[in-house]
Amino acid sequence: MDQRSRTLNGKMTTSKTMTVDSCRKTCTDLRFKYYGVEYSSQCFCGNNLTKSVKMKENDCWSFCAGDKTQACGGTWRIAIYKNPIFTPTKKSTAACKDKKGEVQCSSSNGQRSVCIVPQAELVLNIDPKVPTDECEPGETYGRHGDEIWVSGKCGGKFEICYREVAVKEVSKDCVKTADGSDYTGTLNKTKSGKTCQAWSSQTPQKHRFTSLPNNYCRNPDGEPHAWCYTTDPNSRWEFCEISQCKTPAPGEADECLLEPKGQSYQGTKNVTKSGLKCQAWSVKTPHSHSFTKSLGNQENYCRNPDGEPKPWCYTTEKDTRWETCDIPECAACKIEQEKGPDCKVLYKISGGCYYQSHYRNECKYSVKIDKDGAGKLKADVKYGSTKFSLKEGKSVNKCAYFKVMGDYLVIEDTLTHGC
Tell me, what's the pLDDT at 264? Predict the structure, then answer.
């Protein structure tokens, strides 16, 4: 019987023409040791089997979507096969041409444990410092992106070869707000040309903003512009020179809301729901307000800087201070749903969209799904005051289980009632 963390969690694919053979080929081509079929159309690959419960064979008899004569598991039932031509990865003998390192990564109570390699973009090779029979490559340890995983009794120190995260130089991005508080780009030089100190570092400048990304210019504390600490011991911090974004002309931006409140809306709607013309954010007539600094370059377009139910604007009518704007929501998500035992439910969500948990879900969350610069799916998840972002292969197990797999965001949650 499959489970929330998945018996095979190396790779997942779905197909309307799924067969046992097509799943085998997929996992064999990716050099996985095991492959398994589930729920007629799902294929899972992996190099080790996580804890699961063995079921009776007749519990795994859902016809394969691509061949009704074959069985492809069942609902939360996975039929597992071993790749007959699997060859474990041998200890690397190639010289490391990238960054060498050593990390401590031990299994947790005999279960699989994941370690992150700091500043690694990709782990290239990994070998136990002291090889043993209990640390078989491809079976008890492996790598995925910037992660190292170990299981069983394997653990201790590992020698690694990895590609370091590149520190990007001056970018061509821009700021939308006058103070740069919205800036998420990669500029890492100050106005005078000094290199920015990494926010995670306390050398040479000690500070409290250690959670900010890399050494990119930011404005976490309300300064007049984005800034950074410098690597010059004699210059604690300086402003960064970032150009102002070009305000979109009518018709250049998406005229729909990615999320219900529209706080990320950057369109050009400039009339309220009753048809009143919006007052420019840069002026205080006829209505005085406090947004001239942060929104002064946003013309008179509807915006939502303070968490109102919808984007809004001050109006040019003296008797009507402000109103919300009538802007439709963007395309809805494509959602596939699969119910499991014990009130569990699995959602597979795709499309550039905004998704919010159902009132029956135990976990109350919202998700914004989009593509990154490389065209890969990314998901920004929020529940309560907690926020995190996920990309391909990354997972988080909080109030629900979230993982990006290919073109899908997979969410596993529990129904509080009506299951």
Answer: 80
CB 360 within 8 A of CB 418: yes
pLDDT at 387: 85
User: What spatial distance separates the first Cα and last Cα of the chain, rounded to whole Å?
Assistant: 19
Whole-model pTM over 0.90: no
User: Tokens 């340890």, residue?
Assistant: 141
Diameter of the chain measured on Cα atoms: 81
Write out pLDDT tens, residues 136-171: 776 688 887 777 888 877 878 888 898 887 654 444
241 neighbors 172 (Cβ within 8 angstroms): no
Q: Which residues pair with 99 in a beta bridge?
A: 162
Residue 55, token pair as written in the block: 């079921």
- How many CB atoms neighbour CB 164 within 10 A? 14
Residue 366 pLDDT > 50? yes
Structure-token match 């000094």, residue found: 194
Three-point CA angle 80, 83, 85, nearest 5°: 170
> Do 18 and 41 touch, CB atoms closer than 8 A?
yes
- Spatial distance between the Cα atoms of 303 and 311, rounded to a whole number of angstroms: 5
Whether 8 shows a pLDDT value over 50: the answer reads yes
Report the C-alpha gap between 69 and 85 in whole angstroms: 25
Residues 6+ apart with CB under 8 A from 32: 8, 10, 11, 45, 46, 47, 83, 86
